[in-house]
Design a protein that fits this description.
Number of strands: 0
Number of helices: 15
Low-confidence stretches: 198-208, 399-413
Distance between the termini: 13 Å
Structural class: mainly alpha
Mean pLDDT: 82
Shape: globular
Order of helices and strands: HHHHHHHHHHHHHHH
CATH topology of the largest domain: Growth Hormone, Chain: A
Number of domains: 2
Radius of gyration: 21 Å
CATH superfamily of the largest domain: MFS general substrate transporter like domains
CATH architecture of the largest domain: Up-down Bundle
Length: 413
């Protein structure tokens, strides 16, 4: 088991902090994707249909990369995948800024989608290799915090860069990913453990099948709850702007309400993570899920920017705990030589919910308006919390039990 290094910041090893810094840099430079629709329609003059197709291609690349990036991280190493992903992202960003034509745009958009998202399971697996199990929720919370801080900075930087031409956006984004790649190359060693003892629940999978579907009942229950959580957390992006517009509010009002999400995460991520760490992870996750459902359910009852902003604050408190706790549970349920693959399944399941949410909620809004969506969110949260409590029963008393083989497999430089 990785030991807490003496004198390391917050008891976390040095390589973790380099991973954290790389996450902050790439997130702060990652403002191209939110501006893609504007770039393609206004600068390139493409149709709305082609713009939608391009963003779909990005989503397809993201989903594929989330799964296969994790599988490759188990087979060829975390560091190799992190480096290759940054190279792909830099190539895609430069290609989008410099080339002309629909086919190159689609190709380089796919490249960016793969590059940006293949890093996620590899990074999550490297964190699990480096950090003691008891510290994983805090470590993943710090990664999530860096992602949100970086993205908040990106929103400001993007406006300044775009005023000097969209090419500058692509160049700065490519430079950020290049810098992150240099950090990984110079400061982050390979952490992939050798193959170790396999769980009985995974015994049916062929030996060495890093991408095989996990057979652990506990992990499958976790994936089911992740699918529901993904459906929940897409509604503020899909239905909330429709609800606020129907309530007579402007897009700027929606932006003001959603700004509360970033503010809550920036200010309360660390103290709330510390508080949640006093609970068993499944209980912390179930509590956060119920808070999320309550916040979204109350959206049907509020009016005005202040009311919607208050509901955003409430479900944001749940979001703070949900994401890092899910990643820590994935790490706890994963064999040490399949950390990347399990994190890939987790991220792919989340991506599936991102694809399903607009279709499902769109049908409800068309037939009955936005209010039933928020009631459905509350019901989904209750069902999801029940699944998380079932997960606690399946895991028994293993609150921070070391994964078999992690003691001898962990590599701490």
């Amino acid at each position: 088991m990785p030991a807490r290094p003496a004198g390391a910041p917050w008891g976390l090893p040095g390589p973790f902090w380099w991973l954290w810094g790389g996450t902050l840099v790439t997130s702060a430079g990652g403002f191209v994707v939110p501006f893609m629709a504007i770039y393609l329609t206004t600068v390139r003059g493409y149709s709305v249909f082609f713009t939608g197709l391009t963003l779909t291609v990005f989503g397809v690349g993201s989903g594929i990369a989330s799964l296969f990036g994790g599988i490759l991280a188990d087979r060829v190493g975390r560091r190799a995948v992190l480096l290759a992903s940054e190279v792909l992202t830099v190539t895609g960003m430069l290609g989008l800024g410099l080339t002309q034509g629909r086919a190159p745009v689609l190709l380089f958009t796919l490249t960016v989608g793969v590059g940006l998202n293949a890093t996620r399971p590899a990074r999550a697996a490297a964190v699990a290799d480096l950090v003691a199990p008891a510290d994983l929720p805090r470590a993943y919370a710090l990664i999530y915090w860096a992602t949100n801080l970086g993205f908040s900075a990106a929103a400001v930087t993007a406006g300044l860069a775009a005023s000097h031409g969209f090419l500058l956006l692509f160049l700065v984004n490519a430079l950020a990913n290049l810098l992150a790649g240099v950090v990984v190359y110079l400061r982050v060693p390979e952490t992939r453990p050798p193959p170790g003892p396999r769980r009985a629940a995974d015994a049916a999978a062929p030996a060495g099948a890093a991408g095989a579907v996990p057979r652990s009942p506990a992990f499958l229950v976790l994936l089911g709850t992740v699918l529901l959580l993904g459906l929940l957390f897409q509604q503020p992006l899909v239905v909330l702007p429709l609800a606020m517009t129907a309530d007579g509010l402007s897009p700027a009002d929606y932006g003001t309400a959603m700004m509360m999400n970033g503010l809550v995460i920036a200010v309360l991520q660390l103290p709330l993570t510390r508080l949640a760490g006093r609970l068993r992870p499944e209980y912390a996750l179930a509590s956060a899920t119920l808070v999320t459902g309550l916040g979204m359910g109350l959206t049907a009852l509020v009016h005005g920017v202040a009311g919607y902003g208050a509901s955003v604050v409430l479900w944001s408190l749940g979001e703070i705990v949900v994401w890092p706790t899910c990643m820590a549970l994935v790490a706890a349920l994963s064999p040490p030589d399949r950390q990347g693959g399990y994190q890939g399944w987790f991220l792919s399941t989340w991506s599936l919910s991102v694809a399903l949410a607009p279709v499902l909620s769109g049908r409800v809004v068309e037939s009955s308006g936005t209010a039933p969506v928020w009631g459905a969110c509350l019901c989904l949260a209750v069902v999801c919390a029940g699944g998380q409590l079932l997960l606690a029963r399946l895991r028994g008393d293993r609150r921070a039990e070391p994964v078999p083989g992690r003691e001898e497999a962990a590599t701490v430089p």
